[in-house]
Amino acid sequence: QRQEYAYQLEAYDRQADEKRGKEREFRKMKHDMKNNMIYLQELLNSDPEKAKEYLEEYIGEAFSGKNEFAKSGNLAIDAILNYKYVNAAEKGIRMESEIKTPDALPYKSSDLCIVLGNLLDNAIEATEKLEDEEEKQIFIKLIYQKKRLLIEIRNPYRGSLKKGRSGDYLSGKNDQENHGIGLKSVRKVVEKYDGTLDIHTENQQFQITIIL
């Protein structure tokens, strides 16, 4: 029993060390990103063309505005959806949308980017694993009515879904703790606006519905 207890303590220490390491890495990444944004802000003021080149390098691939999937007029929504559209197309994934939103919305642009960016990353990750090319399709609905924004994203998936202790669905990637940060960030935004978040899984279809 003492030996088993010692093993449990060692395992706990390892997990604690790993968690601390990931927290340090996350703080460093956040700090580096802030510094990059400060530099980008200065570039925008002094040399917009160089700022564009730097942003394309930072993102990892150049985004061309030629592929206008979303034309809602809201800069944050259109930027994220158009970028993810290109990313999905490169993986053989089709995207369809129903968007009815005004140019101006009563939400911070950064919050909209967090929600849409993370949800679409998850949808693309799940959909690209499908073997049948005909099934690789993501549906996006964005409708603003009566001072409320409805966000609905639906995608197919295969296999079983696992939930963590918090009740969130776990990523299929190896480092689930880091990739679980995405949905946690989405929940924080939803709570900030006293919204609701619902997830339904039926007939191998994953649907997440958010009202802000």
Give a quick account of the main beta sheet: strands, pairing sense, barrel closure: 5 strands, mixed
Structural category is alpha+beta
Query: Helical residue percent?
Result: 40-55%
Distance between the termini: 52 Å
Mean pLDDT: 79
Order of helices and strands: HHHEHEEHHEE
Unreliable runs: 174-180
Tally of helical segments: 6
Number of DSSP-assigned strands: 5
Structural features, described:
The protein is of the alpha+beta class and 212 residues long. Helix content is 51%, strand content 18%. The chain contains six helices and five strands. The chain has helices spanning 2-46, 48-59, 75-90, 109-127, 176-179, 181-192, and strands spanning 94-100, 137-145, 148-156, 196-202, 205-211. A five-stranded mixed beta sheet has the order 1-2-3-5-4, covered by helices on one side. It is globular, with a radius of gyration of 20 Å.
